[in-house]
DNA sequence: AAGACGGGGAG
DNA sequence: CTCCCAGTCTT
């Protein structure tokens, strides 16, 4: 690669950026904390999605110290709906580290920044270059696409080794004293001009020396192996209407501290077999819930289906409605069950009633209290619409819950 | 090297 | 539908 073509790229791209750059909230100043927060939020997340979250987050946690001092649930709540929630926990852990080890000042030190939780090669480079104007590469998906095209590189960008190679090129392109602007220019070009599907080459400031375009390969590049499709999981979920002191409320539970949607709230659900009738699925769910909580629930019908696709799992949820079955005799409620009329549905319902009866006896013997009055495990809770504001729900459950309350209102 | 980890917007 | 987005961490 000749020096001219690189020189041309750097000069033209930088000039272009300074002319057309977007006025984004995190570009108001170079406060390293503001840059840091923005870069974490922008991981795998579009600019337009991030903007409102960023504004709210910075208003609520304006400094490293305030973020470090906040209760973790408040930070998580600020992240509600953004996804990849470990980002929020890691960001706060990083803030606490900065307070404890660096007196609340984000250090102008590559090694120190890179060691913060949730800060990988891209983010450390972004912080060092944008906040401190250090000549570090900040290679994200945009940059890999732009440079793959400009230099006509056919390496698979899904491979970790490819990013390392592109980082080397990226460093060599940084103009003296302009690391921050140049790195942002690279990403701005990828976002506005050199887009994945149909790049707008005719408006590109560096098109005349773009090797990918000159080879007619701009739409084939970058090369990237396809991701595997997410595995499917059928889940039976239930929204349980409380009664008595819990009237108007529903039962929710908090997920474990580790793993998918860690620490977030949800309504009860259970992984079930791909086959199975409504009554059988609801029955499994009811039994499982009884084991966990001691509660005896009575499914009353199917509420809705909800599909939710994560990057690695596809949840197909069948969502049932239930109330707290008081006595066993009422278990075969007449109108409610959708499978009513089908012989197998009735059979399963009968089975459920019998089991519930047995369970009731066990539970009553063990606790000498009505199951519905028994103390819930700590991670279960009855909540109304207002209490929802305190708890953090993934969007999937938020949508269903809101729809449930909208329907039950009239 | 491969999988876990959210959610949404664009074509 | 498919792709993929200002990625990181764990195995």
UniProtKB/TrEMBL annotation:
Span of domain Nudix hydrolase: 233-407
Note on how the cofactor is bound: Binds 1 [4Fe-4S] cluster.
Catalysed transformations (reactions): Hydrolyzes free adenine bases from 7,8-dihydro-8-oxoguanine:adenine mismatched double-stranded DNA, leaving an apurinic site
Enzyme Commission no: 3.2.2.31
Keyword DNA damage: yes
UniProt GO molecular function: 4 iron, 4 sulfur cluster binding; 8-oxo-7,8-dihydroguanine DNA N-glycosylase activity; adenine/guanine mispair binding; metal ion binding; oxidized purine DNA binding; purine-specific mismatch base pair DNA N-glycosylase activity
Ranges in a coiled coil: none
One Pfam family linked to the record: HhH-GPD
The protein's required cofactors: [4Fe-4S] cluster
GO biological process terms on file: base-excision repair; mismatch repair
This protein's UniProt keywords: 4Fe-4S, DNA damage, DNA repair, Glycosidase, Hydrolase, Iron, Iron-sulfur, Metal-binding
PROSITE patterns: NUDIX
Superkingdom to which the source organism belongs: Bacteria
SUPFAM superfamilies registered for this protein in UniProt: DNA-glycosylase, Nudix
UniProt-listed PANTHER family: ADENINE DNA GLYCOSYLASE (PTHR42944:SF1)
Function in brief: Adenine glycosylase active on G-A mispairs. MutY also corrects error-prone DNA synthesis past GO lesions which are due to the oxidatively damaged form of guanine: 7,8-dihydro-8-oxoguanine (8-oxo-dGTP).
Family, per entry: Belongs to the Nth/MutY family.
Entry protein name: Adenine DNA glycosylase
